[in-house]
Prior knowledge:
The chain is α/β, with parallel strands linked by helices and 352 residues long. It folds into two domains: 5-140 and 264-320, D-Maltodextrin-Binding Protein, domain 2, CATH 3.40.190; 142-262 and 323-351, Periplasmic binding protein-like II (D-Maltodextrin-Binding Protein, domain 2, 3-Layer(aba) Sandwich), CATH 3.40.190. The protein is 39% helix and 15% strand.
Amino acid sequence: MRKPMIFLLSIIMIASLLLSACGSSGSSGSGGKSDEKVLNVFNWSEYLPESVIQKFEEETGIKVNYTTFSSNEEMYAKLSGGNLGYDIAVPTLFFIEMLVKEDMLEKINKENIPNLKNLNPDFTGTFADPEDEYTVPYLWGSVVIAVNKEHVKKDVKGYEDLFDPEFKNSLVMPEDNRASVGAMLAIKGYPINSTDEKEIEEAGDLLKELKPNIKAFDGDNPKGLLITGEAKAGIMYSAEAALAKRENPNIEIIFPEEASFLWQDNFVIPKGAPHKENAEKFIDFVLRPEISKEISEAYPYGNPNQEAVKLLSEEIQEEMSIPKDFFERSEYARDVGEATVLYDRIWTEVKQ
Length: 352
């Protein structure tokens, strides 16, 4: 899924400017020698506590330059033009499938990551990387519905209930075409990873029907609109809903009765990473049980680090939990190959 050359050149120019600005919270370094005390991390917004970065810097003397993205598509577009200095990225499994196929990742030296032993084997050997050559699990979760019961009287059980006129201009949706279109596929009873043109078109039409109820597509802070009451409900990632509920007890988390979208994000090292050993050192640091525990306390997504989970309070473990029946009827998003173009077209039309 290569981007047009003009678009790539624009991305390269913009990203190069960002990378030259070396900042601890908003930009990546421009790269350098492999023994340089620098690490350039490319990650989702609100996904790694600043305290973890500070502890790593204090312990190792390695300066972390942290850049964020709000969608897998944004991450992929920047990496597609060749590595612009990033040492670590955190894509979702179905995008890792594409990155591996296109030889855009470095193999990870497992000898540099002894804390791999802390991982639950259920989250390794994934369909995207069966031999665990390129990836290390970070966090995982699902897509759920969150409803502010202070403003909503309707009994919401699934995605289909969100079409009610009560939700006009009051829904927040993920900045994620696969999650949003996937919810519509689920309503129709189609696979979330459908590659059937007719099924995807029908799901797209359904998403367009829902548009009058959609206030915003937000990939950075969807819980914000829900907490303040600007949005009555939303489809969002599981931890975003849990964090919203922490702030506003009126928020109810609903595991939709339809199938849902599961995901797992992994650490990868982009091809040509200038500080590969520093990246491996950071991954090993994050896999320490006490550090991984700190991450889950701040962002209660599912944690594949089984030793860290043992350290978490019952309250946090409850926030992270997903009902077994919901998990079993849901699907992990997969690379849909040529159908990606169709999902992209539908997404563009919906957001116009």
